[in-house]
Amino acid sequence: MVTLVARRGRELQRYNSQGHRLVVGCIPYRLKAENYRPCPEEIALNLKVLIISSQKGHEIMFPKGGWETDETIEMAASREAVEEAGVVGHIEARLGKWAFKSKTEDCSKVGYMFPMRVTEELGEWPEISSRRRCWVSVGEVKNNCKQQWMKEALDRLVERLSAPSLSRRK
Predict the structure, then answer these.
(1) What is the pLDDT of residues 15-29, one digit of tens each?
(2) Does 113 map to a domain?
């Protein structure tokens, strides 16, 4: 069962040894053809990613938020996807770690991003009234997302999905 209430507050937030808040996010995705790995030229035709609007609606981004002390990093990525985008899926191996400056606070953060192969879209989710979600192409994210670190995470996902599988290597 999915909870329809988003977590609030910072009592359980994780910070690194430099005092930077740790955040976790994911790139929800789906492939039109799940049974093979498309070559790089085909990936643009087969890959769709789910973006969300910022709470004020001025920017597009991937779901992300604070990693709390009572959850694993994968649990945090899944929770953020449900709370902000209303999707459930399989969290895959981490894409990387990025340091970035917060736009709303005068502090630095460290963000971890994961791919999430979406298995279900919810009709209702905790932040449905404050965010929009939309399936888009990789190119649309590249042209419209202002956060460079999120674009870099997307590049890593595209590389991973277009890499030949072990069974195709000779």
Answers:
(1) 999 999 999 999 999
(2) yes
